[in-house]
Write the structure tokens for this entry.
Amino acid sequence: MAKIDDVARLAGVSKGTVSNVFSQKRPTSPKVTERVLRISRELNYVPNHTARSLVTKKTMAIGLTVPHGNFFFSTFHNQFINGVVLEASTYGYRVLLDMIAVEEVKTPSLASYPIDGAIVLGPMLEDRRIQLLHQHQIPFVTVGQMMNQGIVDASTVNNDNEKIIHDICDYLISMGHRNMMFLNAGQQMTVSMVRSEAFIHALEKHQIGLQPHMIHYKPMVDYEESMRYGYEETYHTLSELSEQVTAIIADDDRTAFSAMHALKDLGYRVPEDISLFVICGDLSMMHQVTPSLTGMDLQPSELGVQAVRLLMHKLSVLEGEYRNHWIVDSRIIERDSCSLK
Amino acid sequence: MAKIDDVARLAGVSKGTVSNVFSQKRPTSPKVTERVLRISRELNYVPNHTARSLVTKKTMAIGLTVPHGNFFFSTFHNQFINGVVLEASTYGYRVLLDMIAVEEVKTPSLASYPIDGAIVLGPMLEDRRIQLLHQHQIPFVTVGQMMNQGIVDASTVNNDNEKIIHDICDYLISMGHRNMMFLNAGQQMTVSMVRSEAFIHALEKHQIGLQPHMIHYKPMVDYEESMRYGYEETYHTLSELSEQVTAIIADDDRTAFSAMHALKDLGYRVPEDISLFVICGDLSMMHQVTPSLTGMDLQPSELGVQAVRLLMHKLSVLEGEYRNHWIVDSRIIERDSCSLK
DNA sequence: CTGAAAGCGCTTACAG
DNA sequence: CTGAAAGCGCTTACAG
């Protein structure tokens, strides 16, 4: 590959001038610009990204780390990632995908992270990723519930999870449901704790006593098993219970699908016998199944966009004031899976 | 951040030695190793990835480019990406996600790609991404149908699309179906061309005449519209047709869901009135809906794994013989959405 | 608007 | 097993 010296020599200018033509950080005369560009084209020259990074100290990449474990994207993640990648490209940034946890610095061969900043999706308690980012002094923003873990000033973009749960409970309770089952996310997700608490508060607000069968947590397992979560919990809980659960709140669309499957096997109809509400699912897909699923629009793509904007502010790519915590709106999309008790 | 000179000075050794401790390319005495490591820990030192890359000429990252446009991942893409990221991490490689097309070199500020190789998902006719990769001399492997476009020796990982379509047609025809509708992928996808041809051949093989309503192509549009594709084509085709279509082959699970929706609105039952076969869908999700969907297991995760392995061979990270074209197996998973005519 | 020179933080022959 | 020095391919004050 041609390098800057080759272009400079053939164009009869200095390296600095060639650099300026490409970076546009200082003006160059039209004549020189055109000559340099022509030679560059002939030589198939393009500035070496790595060399540039070394001196500018910018990699023009941000890291996107998702929880470790045998993890698979949900449609929620899809749209979130879409928002991130598209918005990042607006500022000339690329996205480095890290699905497994940022590894321990166990092997000495580990080098620094070639990223200018990071977005941490679904922060967890004792999150190794956050500890390392902090230690390496890489600016980051978390998306999802952030608990205080000593890193006081963490920037975060999130939905208002308390409001979400209260809205859902108010909605279902207003329809006459008092025995609801909540298929929550995994216990290691900080979001699930906030949601459980809000769920309990919402019940109290309406003078409904909490019962053991009302809250379930997704086991932290592999893909296949997590697909069965909705089925297993629904099937076993409902078949062993004497009282009648009349509404189920499912953490995501997959959980909802598998819960529906269990309901069918148990002989229950949705929504005639049992209502089903999805917190975090793909709205289009939820619209296509039968019955179409009522749920909450969390705007995952918007979460991604706002996370990138916040990070760009922290990196001083974006000027002006900004808030360290950003809440993305959510609202109920009524469809056919919930009805009066 | 501390740099190699700081560590070298405090540890009383040369930079070269510090380098060796971290890269492990040359042995260092236990005493020195331990001292360097201790100092490094104290200073929070870690080798600068960019500086290392500049001299080794390796970024230890591969690019993953998906088709441009207003694109959203399907569950197929999810699992594929999973395979790629996990397998790449095995070799110490990270994955740079490019969702929009590798841009034209229109603005001169564009720098080289900081990747050692690339995986191109869903190659298209006149694929700009491939042209650029080729021009920048970045090794790449394509996943999905590759048509000859002057780049003769492109490495590729793929399913056997001809076999897939023949297997599906043989399966449905053996059940008595002769009037089948194929909701194919978008016309710009090379895979859809191969599948259409195979579909036509399969019909010929069984002496079934091709009719205009039998093949449809997903319009290249935004997310919302593509979700409607299955619905629209199914609804309009079936309501305007005098003869009876008895089986539908859907390109992916979303198309299948929305086709099912249309069938329900038209008063058809699956599979009693019309059978439904899904080519490329999330098997677990297809198992959870009612009726559970019969489809083809394309092993998307395995496609990702093999694509990375092939690329690692091309980058000489992996030693030994390898084939430039790799076919990943597929097989029919029988569930409840197809039945005898 | 342009050039000459230093420097970004590493690795790598070369020499011992 | 270790060190001294050159060099990876750019950008950036500094000077004009």
Notes: Residues 101-109 of chain B have pLDDT under 50 and may be disordered. Residues 61-160+303-328 of chain B form a domain with the Rossmann fold fold (CATH 3.40.50.2300). Residues 13-17, 20, 26-29, 32, 51, 53-57 of chain B lie near DNA strand D (CB under 10 Å from a C1'). The longest helix of chain B spans residues 223-240.
